[in-house]
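Q&A FORM
Asked by: J.P.
Topic: structure of Large ribosomal subunit protein uL4

PROVIDED:
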Amino acid sequence: MANVAVYNMEGNEVGTMELSDAVFGVEVKENLVHQAVVLHLANKRQGTQKAKTRSEVSGGGRKPWRQKGTGHARQGSIRAPQWTGGGVVFAPVPRDYSFKMNKKEKRLALKSVLTSKVQENKFLVLDELKLDAVKTKDMKKVLDNLKVEKALVVIGSDSENVVLSARNIPGVQTASVNTINVYDILKYNTVIATKSSVASIEEVYA
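REPLIED BY: S.T.
REPLY: Here is the structure written out as tokens.
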């Protein structure tokens, strides 16, 4: 089992914690991590782009001039793609970019990135993270004490003050145990979690 230091909100080390190898000590599967990131980005795409083909553009029912004898190149419609205002060749149409990934693969990808953060010493554990009021300055002070700038803060269900205090800090995002994902863990340099959050992660994803 991996041992990590436990810090308080002042940035002082107050103990250590053993992490479960079932979640934080797995073999890192880079191919699954890559697939999970592609899945996340693909599922975020709206796919609402649309342009009209020559069959959808209005007008152009009459042949603009006769086939021969004018000196012009032959033309069949003023809505052909080579005309201004004509249809688009192979125009994009609305589509769904999302695809699915097996649950076991998604879970293993998440465990892989959590393991890599622990191996890189980019996984910080706090004994607790509680703010008495919604104050961005207080949350920023906690991050400064931990010497962290770009971070994903994993919190429990009763941390509304933390969420509201962190939302205006650039480079900081909060997430609950149930909403963490591979993309966000990789996007932020450091993952910060409380002891209770770590226990929940081990319980949910083990």
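FOLLOW-UP: The chain has a mean pLDDT of 91.
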